[in-house]
Design brief:
Strand content: 15-25%
Order of helices and strands: HHEEEEHEHEHHEHHEHHHHH
Number of helices: 13
Helix content: 40-55%
Radius of gyration: 21 Å
Mean pLDDT: 81
Distance between the termini: 33 Å
Shape: globular
Largest sheet: 4 strands, mixed
Low-confidence stretches: 1-29
Structural class: alpha+beta
Number of strands: 8
Amino acid sequence: MAHRRDFFRTAGAVALGATAVGRVGAAALPEAARRDDAATTPPPPPPNGRPFNPVVTLNGWSLPWRMKDNVKEFHLVAEPVVRELAPGMTARLWGYNGTTPGPTIEAVEGDRVRVIETPIPSKTHALNLGDEAARGFPRFYVDADVVLTLDGIRRIAARLGASGAPAAAPVMQVDLSGSSWPVRAFYAIWTQMPYTREGMIGVGVYALSEEGRRRFGRFPDVIADDGYVRALFSPVERVRVDEVPVKVVAPATYSDLVRVKTRSRLGGFELAERFPNLAADERGRKDYATALRIVAFRPWLWPQATAYLWINIVCRWRARGAMRRRDAVVWERDTSSRRRPVL
């Protein structure tokens, strides 16, 4: 059975892969049109392209487009949307361009339109489809629940071009406002680890230059596609773009955190089994001595370090069990962070 989460994960990966653009293309991309209300908005007459009588969407609006090389281009942004369903009752939903449902997209007979569709609910399959359709560089790979602005895309592309590095990612900004103490304790340690601070981990988005994308062929069918890509590059080859923060909403409860980190650990075990040399190189780069000093010389972090260690032990044990049972295909989800509004 394909879950709604699988659909959004697949659809988001295809959309971002298929519309990857180079630095010049990114600079020319228009800002996405947005709305913040559900009022019925009659669309204006078609400004270009083939003439037609636009549809009026009740409690909605129509997305404008631009013509490029005789192709009608729409700019869609998949993102979480906070909607007030009743006075004092809000819900965090999926939407496009600020509204849910998203805007109406109209194409008429004779318009040049390309749609990528796949019946396989697999993120790596979607990434490969996107790569097949994409022509430009740098190329961005973005999880469906990540909000990355057009300005952020331009800044990351500029840093890749200026540095000559093959890979880049924004910096992670963890939102712990709705998290319990065990979750806050875990992230207090995890975010200080040298491995985490090197970047390109936990943020849900990374960009590759043409040189970086040549480092491998098709995405393998693995849980941790980002871990696989990260392991292909040494720390000096990865650029962390600190001026582009991306908010990551942390799980709310201990149980939610264990599910998320078990999945992460399971992805690491899978990579070690299928790509042992790559995993060994990545382990060899980890600076355990510095990590130990961070905690040892900060007594106020000892309670958090105890929680961090316990959670890691539990997640490792659960992931090992999943590997033995070969049920690694189960995608353990954290639904708590998706119920909380983005402030």
